[in-house]
What we know:
The chain is α/β, with parallel strands linked by helices.
Amino acid sequence: MASTSSLHAKPHLVVIGNGMAGCRAVEELLARAPDLHRITIFGAEPRVNYNRIMLSPVLAGEKSFDEIVINDQRWYRDNHIALVSGDSVVAIDRAAKTVTARSGDVVGYDTLVIATGSDPFIIPVPGRDLPGVIGFRDMNDVESMLAAAATGGEAVVIGGGLLGLEAAHGLSLRGMKVTVLHLMPILMERQLDGAAASLLRSQLEARGQIILTGADTAEIVGNGAVEGVRLKDDTIIPAKLVVMAVGIRPNVALARAAGLAIGRAIQVDDHMVTSDPSILAVGECVEHRGQVYGLVAPIWEMCRALAEGLAGRRSGYAGSVTSTKLKVSGIDLFSAGDFAGGEDCEDIVLRDIAGGTYKRIILKDDRIVGTVLYGDTADGGWYFDLLRNRRDVSGLRDMLIFGKAYAPLESPA
Length: 413
C-alpha cells in the first residue's frame, strides 16, 4: 500500500464528474499507469459511480440501484482515490490551477479532467418550474418517478425518443397511465425510419400507452403542482407527473467560465486535451472533430484515448460510428449509421408486418452505411461490424438481408 507521503509526491489528477465517463477514464489510466497520479474525483451526487444507462431498468423494476453500481467504495479505497461526493465543483482557476467546490474547499491540480456530462433540455414553456416536472438523467429523477408512481395516476412524457420511451415504459409498468407527447411525426426519428417507427408505435399502444405525435406543448398547467399539459391546439392532458425527455445539452458552464474553447461543447483533440494543455475533457460534454456523442460506446473510446495520452502513448481517438438499442423489455430494435439514404444509395428491405419484423439495409458503393432492424435484431452486431469496417458486401448482396447465417463471411477483425 502506498504511503501518504509517496501519494502526495505524485502529480495530482483531479476529475470533475463521478459519472460513467470520469470514472471510466480513471479506470483506463489505472490500467496503463497505475502509479502515475494522485487522484481526486468530485461528484455532484452523494453516491458512488453507477451506470446511468441502466436507470430505465431500475425505473421498470427490473434492477435495483445496487445492481447498477459500477465502482463501489472499495474501488476508490483500493486505488487510493479521494472521492468528494455530493460537493460539486463551481469554479476552475486556470492560472492558480485550482478548483473550488460548492462547500468552499479549494483543491489544486496538476492535470484536470472535466467530465460534467450533459443536462436535460427543459423546454421553455410556462409551468416548467412546477413541482412534478422532472428530467430523466440521474437516480434522483428515478426516485421522484417512483414516488409519484407509488400512488398511481396519470403521467405525461414529453419526448418520443429513446429516453422518453424508456421512461414511459417504466412508469407504465409501475401502474401509471402514460401519455407520450412527441413533436415530430414519427417516434425515434433520429434512429428509425417511418416503417420501423410505425411498428414500434403499434406495440407501445398495445401495451396501453397513449402516443400523440405532432404534439406541440404550449404550457404545463397547475396551481402549485402539475395538473396537466396543454398543447398548442388547446388539448389538455391530465397529469400529476411530467417527464421532460426532449433532449440533452452538454454541460459546459464550468469550462466556459474558465475560458476554454467551446463550440457545440468543450473542444478537444484526439487525446481529449482542451485549449488548455493542463485540462482534458471527456464524455457527453465534449466536441471532437465537430461531433458530440451521447452514447456509451464512443465515450469508452474517448476514455481510452485520454488514458493513452496521459500515459505517454500515441493512440488517439478518431471518432465513432454509433448504434442504438431501445431498453424496453419485449421490444427488439437496433439502428446504426445513416438510414436517410439518398440518390446514390440503395435499400434492401424485408418487411413482415404480421410477424412484427422489419429489416432495412442501406448500401452505398457496395458498403453498408446504415441499418434499421425491428423485431429481429440478432444480426445487428454483424451488420454493425460490416458498417464500421467498411467491408465490401457486393458478393453477399442477394442474401445480405437474411443475416449472417445465409451470407457467410469471415467476421471483421
